[in-house]
Amino acid sequence: MILIKTKKEIDYIKESCSIVAETLRLLKANVKPGIKTSELAQIADDYIQSNGGKSAFKGYSQGGDSIDYPGAICISVDSEVVHGIPGERVLRNGEIVSVDVGVEKKGYFGDAALTVPVGEISEEKKKLLEVTQQSLYKGIDEAVAGNPLHNISAAVQEYVEKNGFSVVRDLCGHGVGKYLHEAPSIPNYGRKGTGVKLKSGMTIAIEPMVNAGTYRVKVEPDGWTVVTTDGMPSAHFEHTILITNGKPEILTA
Ligand code: MF3
Ligand code: CO
Q: Among the atoms of ligand 1, which is closest to the Cα of residue 57?
């Protein structure tokens, strides 16, 4: 069931989303060659907690026999697609790093991610970042009440593939707000005109994961880190948005 949020719920979701947005801004300012991913996670966790929030990821269970997610945020470098666990890895010039932040406050959630360059990066990686971010906005443009859900998916896929990259199939965007992950699941590929009808008051996270090479991914032995099977780089951008009868409202901007 897709939840329709009340005005009051939306206000709470907005509060969590603004902490997410500020945390991402802070992380972006701190990404540089030589910093450890655990240091970035600490900066994020401190900021979230000092604003009355809590990491929505730490302790998250994906079922099965993998460990609960141990980090405050997800940090995924180069061929890591998403769900990288912060640790001793030191960022190096020329890498790209995705930072993904989820916050819970007063029982409501916000979720967003972006990918940033570490120092100077190649032209190919610059294009990958631009295309992935643009594909998110192509998806957001379709997130209007009355539109079928997969218009979002089709818009993302079309833009990415037109630019010579591929969309990950195994992971999707999702409803968000009362829980971190709610219905509907929002694939980054699909056919225009299909899927449930979007309604005003839905809050969703759209999150294209775009690979420079094959769309195929696998999970590392840590049970969480998703990597490209060909070792080529991947980028990830995500926003939580509110569906309205007009332009969608980006809550994590
Ligand atoms: N933004 C990601 C998602 O929506 C991050 C989830 S990490 C997890 O799936 F640990 F919470 F799973
Ligand atoms: Co998400």
A: 11
